[in-house]
Amino acid sequence: MISNYNECLQRYKNDYQINKALAAGEIFKIEPGIYSDKSFEFETAIIAKKYPRAVFTMRSAFFYLGLTDTIPDKYYLETDKDDAKIRDRRVVQSFDNYGILELGMTMREVDGTFIRIYGYERMLLELLRNKNRLPFDYYKEIILNYRKRIDSMDITLIQDMSEEMPKSEMIINSLELEVL
């Protein structure tokens, strides 16, 4: 099980006991502030543990949701506008300025660990909001995959969520023209 420093401190009571557990091989230091009872952890689990308030979005979410087979080169996370800047070369951070960080967020198992990630409906809205920032072929691949699964999606939820987001009229128009 992966743990951060504070969780290890609660379990082992002090730094001396943590170091003793490390020396005995009970736990392993994966990277600064991250420990595990296994010598190897997937990087997705490390990122999720290190940034517990962040939500996986954009290229990471599209890949984990199976909407593209393009493996992202970094982890795309969205955080609240008041959160600190993430200084990790592996992460591309975006900020939610509109109080909608939790909107459409779900828990999903990836590489054996549960992560906070936007669901299919929210990611469709994010795709439409950010279509000018994505390569055309990448955008087209994801839109085609959404067209295949549109019957299993909650259209009412998509419309309700889109009204709470900035650029709502543009999103609804794009949804009607490109997906429905």
Fill in the keyword field for this structure.
180 residues, alpha+beta, 8 helices, elongated
Task: Describe the protein in words.
The protein has 180 residues and is of the alpha+beta class. Helices cover 43% and strands 20% of the residues. It contains eight helices and eight strands; from the N terminus they run βααββαβαββββαααα. It has helices at residues 5-12, 15-24, 43-50, 58-64, 120-129, 136-149, 155-164, 168-178; strands at 2-4, 28-31, 34-36, 55-56, 75-80, 91-96, 105-110, 113-118. The strands form three sheets. A three-stranded antiparallel β-sheet has the order 1-3-2. Helix 7 runs antiparallel to helix 8.
| Broad structural category | alpha+beta
Helix amount: 40-55%
Q: How would you sum up the global shape? A: elongated
Q: What's the rounded overall pLDDT mean?
A: 93
**Low-confidence runs of at least 5 consecutive residues:** none
Distance between the termini: 43 Å
Q: Whole-number radius of gyration? A: 19 Å
Percent of sequence in beta strands = 15-25%
Spatial ordering of strands, largest sheet: 1-3-2
Can you write the helix and strand succession as a string?
Answer: EHHEEHEHEEEEHHHH
Taking the sheet with the most strands, its summary is:
3 strands, antiparallel
Question: How many beta strands in the DSSP annotation?
Answer: 8
Number of continuous helical runs: 8
